[in-house]
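For practice. Supply one:
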Amino acid sequence: MYRAKADGRSQTCVFREDNRAFAVAQLRTGNDLHRALERNEFEVHYQPIMELREDRLVGFEALLRWQHPTRGLLGPDQFIALAEDTGLIVSIGAWVLETACAQTVRWQAEATGGTEPLFINVNLSPRQLADPTLPGTIADILARTGIPGSSICLEITENTLMHHTDSVVDAMQAVRGQGIHFSIDDFGTGYSSLAYLRRFPVESLKIDRSFVDGLGNEAGDTSIVQAVVNLAHTLGLAAVAEGVETAQQLQVLRTLGCDLAQGYLLGRPVLPDQIRVREDATLEHLLRS
């Protein structure tokens, strides 16, 4: 019944035994998820973000992982959707943001000679953006950690921005008033228009990894990335490429004028004790061996 409703109502859905297995697995994961935060099972891994013109480390993206007691390390694709459906993402997301901000403050203290303070990118889910307590939660985190709002960039997917546009704009403006920056994640995979882009207080576009994959080999992908970079710069935004895995991709991005990049070539997401921040951080000397 629920599957039929989810698929659009006024239709039938045939029960299969694997439906039961999936439902039981989801129920178990949901029960475990309720206790994961109080049991300190979550971890924040950090992936470096580099400025391409000078090969300079400028910040990190905070990426949530779940160290499940029996299933091992789980990526967000295995539990975030469930956390969103149950509403747990609000408390989990607040914990991620505070943990990442506190870590960034420590890194900023280490890199005292840098030209700009390191920033932290944190993903913001649709449920968090719709939560009326979000501005207050962020204000409390800023006060507890001592991080300036200008050092935080919240990433919101393109599709999230396209739903409930007016309320999304209001929520973003309330948060933006605290100095927080916004970036559109996975740009090019949704349905945004130029008119919508002008309404949102965003400052960067993240080019989806599916387009970065073919850089230098697929003319279509190269043209799309060039178009996104040009669009970003025309709107006064920064262009950020994710999923950079080869030297060829990196070189093409430089040629196209992309501003920032992240990916396995530049550094994998790791725990903070595996990262050494240096004032002269370069692509070759970022992560400990």
